[in-house]
Every structure is written in C-alpha cells, then in structure tokens.
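Page 42, continued from yesterday. The earlier attempt failed because a stray header line got pasted into the input along with the sequence. Redoing it now with the clean sequence only.
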Amino acid sequence: MADIDKGLPNTRSQIEIPSEEELQDIAVQEEDVEELKGPVEVIPEEDGGATIDYDPGAINTPGTESHFDNLADILPEDAVEPIGNEMVQNYMDYKSSRKEWESAYTSGLDLLGFKYEQRTEPFQGASGATHPVLAEAVTQFQAQAYKELLPSDGPVRTQVIGIKNPQTEQQAGRVKDYMNYLIMDTMKEYESEFDSMLFHLPLAGSTFKKVYYDVPLGRVVSKFVPADELIVPYTATSLDDAEAVIHTVKISENELRKQQVNGFYSDVELGPPGTETNGELSKKERELEGTKKTGKNEPVYTLLECHVNLDLEGFEDVGEDGEPTGIKLPYLVTVDEGSRKVLSIRRNYAPDDLKKNKIQYFVHFKFLPGLGFYGFGLIHMIGGLSRTATAALRQLLDAGTLSNLPAGFKQRGVRVRDEASPIQPGEFKDVDAPGGNLRDAFFPLPYKEPSQTLLQLMGVVVGAGQRFAAIADMQVGDGNQGAAVGTTVALLERGSRVMSAIHKRCYAAMKSEFKLLSKIVSQYLPPEYPYDVVGGARNIKQADFDDRVDVVPVADPNIFSMSQRITLAQTQLQIATSNPQLHNMYQIYRNMYNAIGVKDVDAVLPPPAPTAPMDPSLEHINAMGGKPFQAFPGQDHRAHITAHLNFMSTNMVRNNPNVMAAIQKNILEHISIMAQEQVQLEFREQMTQMQQMQQMAAMDPQIQQQLQMLNNQIESRKAILIAEMTEEFMKEENKITSQMDSDPLLKLKSREVDLRAMENERKKEADQTKADFDRAKLMQSRELAEDKMDQNEELAELRANTSLAKSGVKEMSVLDN
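This time it went through. Structure tokens are written below.
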C-alpha cells in the first residue's frame, strides 16, 4: 500500500480541484498501475487523506503466510463463523457424553469428609461424621507416589539406544543432568503442580499434564490440567486417536486484550465477559476447600482451545496430482465460548512433517482404566463402601447419643420447669405431678446400645475398602525373619498387585511427558547452553537430544514403595548369603544400603580396588598368597609366559599344585589376549567394516549374513593362533616335566601332593553336600511350619466368621420377636 495523505489540507473546503489535463494524466497512471498490479482501491481517511491499495484482497490470499500464522486473520468471515459455532456445539456434546462420569465424581467428593455436615434428620443434632476410608486411601497414595516418582535428586534418567560407547554414554549423562536441572531448578511450578496432580488422580481417575513452550517465560512448562478442564469425547480410547481435544481456559479481560494487541489472537469484538462459573464440579471443589466468591465476581472469558481436524477452504490437503484429497488436517482453534467468535486458527503439525501428524501437547495420567476415555478413581470404585462405612458409623454414633440422652412419653398434666431446654449432666429439674408415683408418669423409649454386629459389619466394609485401595499395612516378614524366600515374595506380590499396576501406569505417563519435554527442549535450546549447578558448571548441546538417548523416569516401574524395595533387597541378600561364591556380594550389600536410603554408601561400604596390570614377580606373590590376578591387553605376553615357566621350574612351585594351577591359568589368559590382538592387526579393515555394518544389520538380512561369515572367519583364525601358541607352551612345559621325571624323589613327592589334594577336594565336596542337605531340610521344615500356620489362620478365620454369622442370626431372631 502507498499512503498519499502527506501535505494535503485538513478540510475539504481547502482542497484544490485538478484540471482536466491533470485528471487525464491520473487516469492514464491508474490504467498503467492496473495493468501491472491489478485492481486499485482508494480508501478515504478521517483527516481528509486517502490510502491507495494496489492489491486489495492480498491479505486473504493463501500461501503468503508463515506456517504457524493465525489463519483466522486470512480466512473470510463467512468461513470462520461456522467453525466457531461448530466448536462450541462439539464442546457441549462432548461434555454431555461424560455427564454420568462427572456426576459420580462430583457427588463422591462429599465422601472425603472435609466438610462436617449439620444434620437435622433423623433428629436434630444427628451425627454428620464421615468415615475416612476414602480420604485415607487418597492421602496414602499421594504420599507414596510423590516420594517414588519425584525423588529429591530428580525424576529423570537416561538410557542409550543402540550400541554403547564412551561418546553416547557421555551424551546420556549430559541429557540426564540437564533434564533434572530443568525440572527441579528452572521449572519452579513443576513440584507443586505434580503434587497436586497426584492428589486429584486417585479421586477423579484421570488427570492431565500440558507440555508446551511458554513464550513469555522463555522456557518449557509442564502444567497440571484437571480432568474437568479437558473435554474429550467419552468414546475415544486415547489422546492420539481422539477426534477432538478441547481445553477450557479461563482468562481475564485485560490478559485477553494483551494477547490481541500483540497479535496472538485476532482483534475481534467479543462482547462483555461473563462471570466465572465452572459448573457443579468446580463449585463442589470450592465448597470442600472452604472458599467461596465474595463481593463482585471477577469477569472472565472462557476460551475453548480445540485441537481438531479441519478441511479449510484454500488450505486443503493436496495430492500428487495437485487436487484436494479431502483429508482433514490437524489445527488448533481457539474460540470464545460466550460469543462463539474464533480468536485463532493455527496449523498443528510441524512444517517439515510430510505426513502432517498432529502435535501432541497433553499427557494422560490414569488411575484405573474406565469404560470410556476417562479413568476410574477411588470415588468410583470404593465410593459405595465408603458410603456404607459412613452410614454404619453415623448409626453407631446416633445410637450412643440416643442411649445417653433418652427421650420418651409423659402423662398429660405433668409439667416440667423449662421443659424446652435439655437436661444437662448432673442437673435435676422441678416437676409438678398431679399425683401418684413419678416413675409411672414417664415412659422412656427403648433405645438400644450401639450394636456389636453393626460395629463388626463396619469393620468388614472398611477392611474391604482398604484391601482394594492397597493401603493396609503389609506385615511382610514381621516376627518371621527366617521366612522362606518364596513365601516372602508371594506375600509381597499379593499385597501390592493393585498399587503396582497403578504405579506402572504413572510410569508410562511420565515417560511420555519426558519425551515431550525433551523434544521441545531440542527445538528451542541454543546450539550450546551453559548452566550452573551446586558444585560446578555444566554444559548441554542441542545435538545431544537425538534418537541415541532415551529419556525415562528414574522410578522403577516394578517397585512403588520403600518397604517393597527393602523386602526385595533382604530377599536378595538372603539368597546370596546361602552361596556367596556365585554372587557379587559387594553389589548386593550396596543394593541393601541404597534400599534403606543411605546417602553416602561409599563411606560406609568402600568399593573394591580396581584390578590393575602387574609385573610377573607380583603375580607370583599373589599366586603363592592365594590372591587373584589376571592378564590385561597391551602387556608383553611372551615375557610374562617366559617368567611364569621359569618360576614353575622351581622346587617350591613343583610341590604346590594350587600355585601351579594359578600360574597356568594366567598363562592361558595371556595366550588368549595375545591371539586376540594379533587377529585385530590382521583383520583391522574387516573389523572396521563390521562396526559400520552393524547399524544397518537389523534392517538388511543380507548384511547380517555377511557379518556372520566375517565373524566366523575371525574366530577361526583366532582358534588357529591359540592352538599354535598352546602347542609352543606345552613344549616348554614338557621340558620342566621331563626334569621332574628324571628325579625319582621329586616324582614321589609330586604323587604324594596330588593324592593329598584329591583327598582335600573329596572332603570339601562331602562337606558342601552335607551343608546343602541340612539347608534344604531346614527350608522344608520352615515351609511346613508356615503351611501349618496358614492353615491355623484359615481355621481361626472360619471359626470367627461362623461365630459372627451365628450372632447375626441371634440378633435377627431377637428383633423378630
């Protein structure tokens, strides 16, 4: 456009009328412009000037915008208005489809007992207490899950995808450190919102996290979204295949105006904002919190952020022939619910994505799978048990109240002073009786004491709810530290299977959340980003966030509590202690210290010194002392073998088979490593090709066959070299043996030593067999004792149930009489 109002007068009376020649020149110029630019539009201004638009309608031309521009500013109004109406109507339909789920959740919030109920039925002052079985289950789960899923050191760990090497391991370490720094230090809101989400999860059954890049904050955020704010068709199976996902956003008038001025939303007239009314669910939540709106309600707009698929005119999906395919593409449409005006329409797929897959912003945390999209929480599953326990508790309390403060009938004519006020404990009131015995003038109603049967029934109901919610204390191993390993693991699994499944769902959801976080970080992070942490400075590269490193939660999906972790560590230690020579005892003890939460394990359990290469003389000393030693690559293997052969020729070694066996073992290690090093020199080029081909072997069976043939060739050459070197070693050893055979005293002494060694080995095997037999016998006795205890417990429980049933029958018969 060109602005021509400069220098023009401010009033129409002062405008000079051009001559006919000037008008002809202007007409010729307009014709020239029209031929070059197309139609011209003259727009008069208020100050008397005018604006000439040489290309009107260019703003409505598709293809001139960038990928994520607001298409609502480009599309004509008659195309945008139906979209707003459709989005609001879909929102109302989807919200109606989950009405029963939402109603059950709303009514179940009363079962938490956060608000004491002042009851007038069945009498004034009746008990309004609520049994805390549901509140206990919710708080137990929240506390347990919060500790396991969000440890103090950070919730993220990494694992290398593919072949591990020092480069990928360093890359994984950098990604892990930065992600934990980002979540625990930079994202200040993460811990509090994650804590709040874990409290809502067992109640509603579904909660959500929204992961996106916040431009004003200049960083990625992961925001907690309650289930009542995210509307999804109830028939959908997941967020990925849902036909629409609608997020309701409350925004003030001033904040919305800011977004319109900076161009994020279209500058359209929306009308006056409404008041904040989130429906029955939000109203119920505010009542439980003990808060309410006071004074004038804050005017807010309700925006519907709709993640939908649309086929927009002018922005259709085009096939190879250039014709529209009719396939709907993913868009993000923001609509004002009150006025149904569209504020923005943006593409919701990456610019370089040829498949045009939807960009996912939400992660679904599910407590238990429901019959539809939303999950079931404890309100849905044990709400009935909680209501029954509450009813039984109130009946017991009401029975006690009526028994302590009885009521009844009195004769007509009997007057009691201040009879409208109740009698206080220790108080006597004056009574005017017409005559006769005062006891005969009053008849108290026959209120019973609180029923023991009702008390037992309430205990059964509460126990059932606790077992379902897995909040009953697991007494695994208490008083029976010598319990069999199988019994301990079986008890642990039986008492935790429900919580274990819920924990795995949370683990899978967090894994999806961390993948979204790492993807956004890789897009917005600079090529190299330094950051400071406690104890030093760190550095992260944008290229570190690639497919070679997978970001996963640090929590173990199979372990959800400290008691479970300690029990498993104790079981591991018990198994390893029975046969320590087959186990890494250092690692087992380290696992035990980690399970009980010891911070500085190295100070309590020093790690074993790493094995380092030794000279032949030190190896001989270790052989005589019974200490282990081994060969390492890069040593002078022939020099070591020669030194060992010379040492084997001494009388001291000849008469000690254990030292001789240790040295021969080390010689064979040197032979194996020497053959491996020679093969690497001979097949250097082939082995380099193998490393390059291994990355493609999984996709091409022909490459796999070539790798197998090359590997067989290398192994064959290695076996030939080992055979030649072993033969050379045997020749040298035979020289020593021939010297020993020439001396009859040495031969006799060697035979005596061999017989003594055989006898010692036989005794050792006999002792080991006897110990194994005793251990098996002891374990069998323990299992028999445990089986007997289980049978006794079952019989006792059966007797108790029988007694309870008999007492119930007696109570019913008494009531019938």
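Notes: The chain is about 50% helix and 10% strand.
Reminder to self: strip header lines before submitting.
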